[in-house]
Amino acid sequence: MALSGMRGLSVFISDIRNCQNKEQERLRVDKELGNIRTRFKNEKGLTPYEKKKYVWKMLYIHMLGYDVDFGHMEAVSLISAPKYPEKQVGYIVTSCLLNENHDFLRLAINTVRNDIIGRNETFQCLALTLVGNIGGREFAESLAPDVQKLLISSSCRPLVRKKAALCLLRLYRKNPDVVNVDGWSDRMAQLLDERDLGVLTSSMSLLVALVSNNHEAYWSCLPKCVKTLERLAKNQDVPQEYTYYGIPSPWLQVKTMRALQYFPTVEDPNTRRSLFEVLQRILMGTDVVKNVNKNNASHAVLFEALALVMHLDAEKEMMSQCVALLGKFISVREPNIRYLGLENMTRMLMVTDVQDIIKRHQAQIITSLKDPDISIRRRALDLLYGMCDVSNAKDIVEELLQYLSTADFAMREELSLKAAILAEKFAPDLSWYVDVILQLIDKAGDFVSDDIWFRVVQFVTNNEDLQPYAALKAREYLDKHAIHETMVKVSAYILGEYGHLLARRPGCSPKEIFSIIHEKLPTVSTSTIPILLSTYAKILMHTQPPDKELQSQIWAIFSKYESCIDAEIQQRAVEYHALSMKGATLMDILSEMPKFPERQSSLIRKAEDAEADTAEQSAIKLRAQQQASNALMVTDQRPAYDTQAVNQPGLVKLPSMSNVERSNAEQGATHANGALTVIDPQLPSTPSPDLLGDLLGPLAIEGPPGTGPQIEPRLASDLESGANADALAIAPVEEQTQTIQPICNIAERFRALCMKDSGVLYEDPYIQIGIKAEWRAHHGRLVLFLGNKNTAPLSSVQALILPPSHLNMELSLVPETIPPRAQVQCPLEVLNLKPSRDLAVLDFSYKFGTHVVDAKLRLPAVFNKFLQPITVSAEEFFPQWRSLSGPPLKLQEVVRGVRPMPLSEMANLFISLRLMVCPGLDPNTNNLVASTTFYSEGTRAMLCLVRIETDPADRTQLRMTVASGDPTLTFELKEFIKEQLVYIPVPSTAPNPVPPPNPISPQALPTSPPTAVSDPGALLAGLL
Amino acid sequence: MIRGVIIMNDQGKPRLIRFYEFQPVEKQQELVRSIYKILCSRAENVSNFVKVDSLFGPDVRLVYKTFATLYFVFIFDNSENELAMLDLMQVFVETLDKCFSNVCELDIVFNFNKVHTILDEIILGGQVLETSSSDVVMAVEDISKLEKNSNSIIPSIPGWQGR
């Protein structure tokens, strides 16, 4: 090693190594710190060499874990030393010891800047490294232009430029404004043409950071990324030093594919084809070999390719190939690959249609639960958790329960939580659920949180059929010798409430139940005793006619605890004693607990929160977030770049509502256009409480023991004062108002469904409505999937289609009740009679408890669904174009207020609207020509031609010409395209400019006065 | 982003600690101790990944590798590819091996400052800077030449000089 050593430093390190114990080390360090402090004080006698030596010692001491609270100034001051060695030490130690907000750092900005703009490239490197490591906002503001200059400079060596790229990345993170999007996106694209792979790697990291924030601005980089990937994957022009174990720079390949994952799609067919060729090559050409390093490198690339395929997921064929590969990986010898195989399978679950293929590997995954490596066992658990659904829940949960007995302690908590969640989510029947939770408590009581047993109590309370079964099970567990305290709690609670249902069975008389529960009392802690007291009171209440002996036994217990030091126990004992003296009146007060309000399980909530929290940076997770929960239906939603304001201009007619609905609207209860109505008969005018906050609370259900003391004392005192019996009705928890809010913006969901054929139309805490559609010519077949997310049935379900005049729609029968956790499918046939942009609305309502939810949902049976893209050649196009010579068959309009977009993006938009873009027909490259066929019963198949002339100087306006053989069609198509072009995009980060409609206040269509509704043309004109 | 690089020996003594997000010294020590506790309980022939949610929060990953008496540890978030991080660690170790010819723990102990210099040529601000071990060795050799000439002010190197 050529680096020069320092004797003083070596001696010090030796001394430290020779210390026998921590105490000696501390003494030696203190001595050295004292020495350094003194030397720094009399700086005069200090040579640069000595200064350098002391600063290194400081860093060493810092690494040993001692706080070095002085000498920072000296470290920083070395930065301005004229000679390289001191300067270098100054830079390195400063960036290790100081944080970005340190005051001294500000003092150094000028020196650092001078080094960056100076001509000495070794100094430039040092300065860039410091700024790249700890530069803060102020550095960003004063240095970014200089750093940019170095990065794009053609006279700089790669050594400097690659550092400049990463330095700029840091500054961009500190202040995104330093990279001016307009100017920089072209530069960025140029940087990707770089031949030097070092600079290219750094630039690619920079690109990843930029596109993760704003991919729109960097579309031009996409084809270059694909080119880079091709160059590497085909090993073209890759220098030897960048070939790592025979693999052309795996890092750059990985980074490039990472960058590509931030683009929502690859639209250009040629680029797409090349990309898939490369991906195919990577997927096929990677084998597990002997050399570990080579394996790691080739699989790094392979796993990234998998992630990219998942992201682009269109190619179903490739997808199954991926699952097949992963299936192979999870059983190989190489543990890293097993680990990543399981992890990637878990990610793959986000993608539509592969769950069934993954399920084929269930046995192997279960085997992985017994892998010698805990990291792999954890992955297997995650995967089993993720792939679990109604079809395999029984197998998986039972496997987890079995594993629980042998699992290491580090995993038991997670295991029991996951088993509990799965059992709840996918229980094929509720008695099975009760079995699982009781087994869980029995096997791993220490790891079963209160949430879990509260939840089982809630289920039992809300389902009468379940009560005798649960009571019987609880009774059985009490026969065991040593049972966990949680088991005592849950069985005491259940038997208190429902023990009387067992009365005729042997061993289940009130007395027997009492004595077997009472046996456990000496073994339990103070927190359980109140529950037992409640149980005794309930047993007493259910014993009719009263059993004197039992009564005196229980009263004796109550009086014993009346002087208990624990206030909770004391209060209960006193109150139950007093209440039970009242005889028959007791019946009313201690009758069964009312049903709990249906809420999302706190467990599931927690699990979902944990999943959402982690979605920060990874592209794949970002996608996962955009996708709806797969509890009922997995969908493939379009990324949010085509989101839209709720009130898009050019709003189209909605079918008129019936009179009843109108009167509702006048009362301020209903309003249309995707907004949602909640009619709460109890407290109609109360603003909704913070429902979310409530759900996010640590417990989503009121724990049964908790409600006791809150309600009962009040009742007791009411009773004493002789209050009238009406006041005695147990205060129903349902009285709290709950406004049911849709999950995610309905307008966005609708908008997404206009572009694709399956997805979620509507979701709230109780129901999810999914849609799958097939379109053939002027026919359409939609299937509505109505999924009840709850454990109680949804009743009074009504789905009414309000078709516009141009659509014949026929919805098959919708059942009035949706059973708990069930999904029903309702096919809907659509026939398109004539061209129109009017919308069909689904008026959907159901009742849950006392709430009536009524949602008016626009259905994605929209204009473009009846289009079929068609390619026309110049020979076909021009005669047609000429023959349709003018209005009303050919309409022309100058459209202003167009959302500015490059022509390529406009072409993509057209393709997604099912208009075929025909390149080459128009010689002017600023123009775009498209063709499509429209189908309706009236027009049959009719060819439509579109020409867009854009103005490169002003992208906000264009001239549009639309021609077809039917005047209405021409008009409607023109308006339709216009709507797509002019909408005001909602920036993804900015808040929605339109406040979400208040669910209670009366509101008509937000954008249109009633007169305008009937005339879309006038409406549009008004808006433009 | 790479959050940190740690080298420690099989006794848990740190040999190099480099965090790319500021961590106070006590926190650094605590992390080193916790990581050591996890690593020393791992058997041979298992994967190079461990779960560190409890230390760093979700989405942060850790890969490690043992070389003779040393643990090399990379901590990073999910914007990085796990296996690529292992590759980078291998590049780091191979570079150390070239610079110290058959590197051993003592080389790293007594030349911790040089290890810092080498690492700075491989990772910058938590991002991969250079993956070609020979390029790193070249850069480090240039630096040591400059260090030796500490008595003379360095003439600036002409900008056009390519590799």
TrEMBL record, chain A:
The keyword Metal-binding does not apply. One of its GO terms (molecular function) is clathrin adaptor activity. One of its GO terms (biological process) is clathrin-dependent endocytosis. Its main location: membrane. Keywords: Coated pit, Endocytosis, Membrane, Protein transport, Transport. It holds the Pfam family Alpha_adaptinC2. Signal peptide: none annotated. It is found in: Membrane, Coated pit. Belongs to the adaptor complexes large subunit family. Subunit of the adaptor protein complex 2 (AP-2). Adaptor protein complexes function in protein transport via transport vesicles in different membrane traffic pathways. Adaptor protein complexes are vesicle coat components and appear to be involved in cargo selection and vesicle formation. AP-2 is involved in clathrin-dependent endocytosis in which cargo proteins are incorporated into vesicles surrounded by clathrin (clathrin-coated vesicles, CCVs) which are destined for fusion with the early endosome. The complex binds polyphosphoinositides. Adaptor protein complex 2 (AP-2) is a heterotetramer composed of two large adaptins (alpha-type and beta-type subunits), a medium adaptin (mu-type subunit) and a small adaptin (sigma-type subunit). This is AP-2 complex subunit alpha. It comes from Sesamum indicum (Oriental sesame). The lineage of its organism: Eukaryota, Viridiplantae, Streptophyta, Embryophyta, Tracheophyta. The gene is LOC105170779.
TrEMBL record, chain B:
Belongs to the adaptor complexes small subunit family. Pfam families: Clat_adaptor_s. The keyword Cell membrane does not apply. It is found in: Endomembrane system. Gene3D superfamilies: 3.30.450.60. This is AP complex subunit sigma. Keywords: Membrane, Protein transport, Transport. PANTHER family: ADAPTOR COMPLEXES SMALL SUBUNIT FAMILY. GO terms for biological process: intracellular protein transport; vesicle-mediated transport. GO terms for cellular component: endomembrane system; membrane coat. Residues 1-145 form the AP complex mu/sigma subunit domain. The keyword Protein transport applies. It comes from the Eukaryota. InterPro entries: AP_complex_ssu, AP_mu_sigma_su, Clathrin_sm-chain_CS, Longin-like_dom_sf.
